[in-house]
Amino acid sequence: MLPTNIILIRHGETAWNAERRLQGHIDIALNDEGLRQAAATAEALASERIDLIVSSDLQRAAATADAVARTRGMLAQRDPLLRERCFGGFEGLLYSEIEQRFPVEFAAWQAREIDAPMPSGARVAETFRQFYQRAVAAIVHWGDRHPGRTLALVAHGGVLECAYRAALGLSLETPRDFPVLNASINRFTVHAGKLSLVSWGEVGHLQPKVLDELS
């Protein structure tokens, strides 16, 4: 079986990203900067082979995927299994507010206790282990279904973190000491059910174009 190339993209910026408000499964739109980032990502990938585009069904990921799809005359598919982690009662709050309202649960989260429960809100929260298993299985599922092809998967920061950890065999308990950037391009392969990392954190396409000083 041939390996599948995975271009894993984080959605563009939202207003809640900018103010450090936890989104989780709350469906927040891209802000103006996020729309610019999505368009820049689409332009950066325009010359590359992509056979299929799939995104989380949350609109910040879907809009980013649709920007990539439009430049190619394609339609993006949706997969709710590519959603961000559900944070339950933490969702919609600033990080500072979470620490104030839920000090015990916040401390466990920051200490990377991967099976620690979070308070329920509008939805029941996932532990980090549950989320990791869901996210990695979704990526591998798409890869195994399309051997030898190139897929663009548009998801969320947590999903990217899970893919990176799976590919490098990192313990879930270790701190996240690697960048997970909005509208970044990250490249993997899937072969025989295993993720491998090719490149990480491409963001050069997001820099504003520099005009020649004489133009």
TrEMBL record:
PROSITE patterns named in the record: PG_MUTASE
Keyword Isomerase among record annotations: yes
Keywords for the protein's UniProt record, in alphabetical order: Glycolysis, Isomerase
Superkingdom of the organism of origin: Bacteria
Pfam families: His_Phos_1
Record's keyword annotation contains Isomerase: yes
SUPFAM superfamilies reported for this sequence: Phosphoglycerate mutase-like (SSF53254)
InterPro entries on file: His_Pase_superF_clade-1 (IPR013078), His_PPase_superfam (IPR029033), PG/BPGM_mutase_AS (IPR001345), PGM_Phosphatase (IPR050275)
The protein's name in its UniProt record: Histidine phosphatase family protein
Source lineage: Bacteria, Pseudomonadati, Pseudomonadota, Betaproteobacteria, Burkholderiales
